[in-house]
Amino acid sequence: MDDLVASERRNISDVIFRRIRDAIISGELPPGYVFPNENELCKKLNIGRSSLREAYSPLETLKLISRSKAGTYVNDLDIYQNAMNFEAIAKQTDVKNIAEYRQIFEIGAIQLAAKRATEKNVTRLREILKKMEEVPEDSVALSQYDFEFHAYLMKMTHNELLIVMFNSIRNAYKNLTESIFAMGCLPTTINEHLAIVDAIADHDSALAAHMMQLHLSNIESFRNRQSAAAGKASEK
């Protein structure tokens, strides 16, 4: 607990939440560990009680800790491992983890979708892309349609686990894509989506996987450029 240092660029409660979460999952803070009382810990970290409680809240949601009048302590391993669900974790993760998850998950899934695609599926994908083209300046709507496109690809696999897992990242996905669309990546995204649909229409699973990998890599490159530009602007 001694190295809980806040970054000036991030919300203090978020920094504390992530540090404690990682420490519990790694075993650095073992089951049964009792945290210092709030006043003592706030003084040690030079933060307010509201910031500490904001950090504790998602930790309780994930069942990593329990709080009572007797104090705050780390739960037993079986409690939080059984209680933690993928959606709850996804809501708290960062965009880098989401990007890596998509690279691994979607490239495999689209191969299955391409093999099982019907003409009706292909028509539906093209309809979603047409909706995206109709709202070029609306980053919120674009993000929603983009998620709908990728979620429909999961539906085409007819695999319930893939469908549920992808839908569970909806909120984190939204955070990742809204800012990217706001920066003007729509033309590239549309072209890449069209190439993916064409490969699916031909039931070419290898090409569909290649185009998905290219698409996701380009999104990550765009996001990195966006972050770099924002960093330079903040230095001025």
Quick overview:
The protein has twelve helices and two strands; from the N terminus they run αααββααααααααα.
* Contiguous helical run count: 12
Q: CATH first level of the largest domain: which class?
A: Mainly Alpha
Helix content: over 70%
Radius of gyration (CA) equals 21 Å
Q: How many strands, what sense, and barrel or not for the largest sheet?
A: 2 strands, antiparallel
Gross geometry: elongated
CATH topology call of the largest domain: Four Helix Bundle (Hemerythrin (Met), subunit A)
Instruction: Write down the oligomeric state.
Output: single chain
CATH evolutionary superfamily of the largest domain: GntR ligand-binding domain-like
Task: Please explain how this structure is put together.
A two-stranded antiparallel ribbon has the order 1-2. The protein folds into two domains: about 10-85, Winged helix-like DNA-binding domain superfamily/Winged helix DNA-binding domain (Arc Repressor Mutant, subunit A, Orthogonal Bundle); about 85-235, Up-down Bundle (Four Helix Bundle (Hemerythrin (Met), subunit A)). The model is unreliable at about 1-10 (pLDDT under 50). It is mostly helical and about 240 residues long. Helix 1 (about 10-25) packs across helix 3 (about 50-60) and helix 11 (about 185-200) packs antiparallel against helix 12. It starts with 11 loop residues before the first helix and ends with a helix. It has helices at about 10-25, 40-45, 50-60, 75-85, 85-90, 95-115, 120-135, 140-155, 160-165, 170-180, 185-200, 205-235, and strands at about 65-70, 70-75. Helix content is about 75%, strand content about 5%.
